[in-house]
Design goal:
Shape: rod-shaped
Radius of gyration: 32 Å
Number of strands: 10
Largest sheet: 4 strands, antiparallel
Strand content: 15-25%
Strand order of the largest sheet: 5-4-7-8
Low-confidence stretches: none
Amino acid sequence: MKTQSISIHQNALKTIGLFCLVMAFGLFTNQMNAQTQTTERTVTGTVTSTDGVVPLATVILKGTNIGISCDENGKFTFPQKLKENDVLIITSLGYKDREMKITGNTTFIEPFLDDIPLIIVGALRTKPSNNN
């Protein structure tokens, strides 16, 4: 009688232990899955500088050839949905390139491009005069 009572308790403990192990594994797997899921979103924006909007700037997803040109008002809608930590490279002639990292639930960005200082060099050549 005593041995039968002990074996019933041992079986119950094994069942409870197995149940707890399965539940812990399920919670761990669910948590890992939640961390690896990424939310993709459409990103829009307006490219600006000290001179105002930058028309026809180029916006490219870093490491790819996927990109778009801004309209004449500096506005764009990126053609591919982006994930967190994606990096956009914004370029335009006469401005320093700018990288912007997509964070959180970013759906709108307003990159500011710094001017590149320009130095204009001129030269003039004239014929020597013949005043003999």
